[in-house]
């Protein structure tokens, strides 16, 4: 919270690539209420990250660089 806005998107993935895989999305503000265990990986997005389907997508910025 010291370095990121509380609205920063966060993906919480439990049991990745296993039968018990579960993907949920939250924000940095609400991360403390997410269910996590030893099989959980947390992905903290950047200021440009967005949720798309079951993905946390971060564009690389080429559109701005080349005017696309």
Question: In words, what does this structure look like?
Answer:
With 68 residues, this protein is mainly beta. It has a single domain, classed as Methyltransferase, Cobalt-precorrin-4 Transmethylase, Domain 2, CATH 3.30.950. The protein has one helix at 62-66; strands at residues 9-14, 22-27, 40-44, 50-52, 55-57. The protein has a 3-stranded antiparallel β-sheet with strand order 2-1-3, with no helix packed on it. Strands 4-5 form a two-stranded antiparallel ribbon. Strand 1 and strand 2 form a beta hairpin. The longest helix has 5 residues, at 62-66. It is flat, with a radius of gyration of 14 Å. The model has no long low-confidence stretch (mean pLDDT 90).
Give a quick precis of the structure.
With 68 residues, the chain is mainly β.
CATH topology: Methyltransferase, Cobalt-precorrin-4 Transmethylase, Domain 2
Instruction: Please tell me how large the radius of gyration is.
Output: 14 Å
Please give the count of helices. Answer: 1
CATH superfamily: Tetrapyrrole methylase, C-terminal domain
Strand content: 25-35%
Which structural class matches the secondary elements?
Answer: mainly beta
Spans of at least 5 consecutive residues whose pLDDT stays below 50 are none
CATH architecture: 2-Layer Sandwich
Distance between the termini: 33 Å
């Amino acid at each position: 919270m010291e370095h990121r806005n509380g609205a920063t998107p966060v993906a919480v993935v439990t049991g990745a690539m296993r039968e018990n895989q579960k993907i949920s999305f939250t924000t940095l503000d609400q991360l403390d209420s997410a269910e996590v265990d030893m099989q959980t990986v947390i992905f903290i997005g950047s200021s440009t990250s967005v949720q798309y389907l079951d993905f946390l997508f971060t564009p690389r910025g080429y559109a701005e660089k080349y005017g696309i």
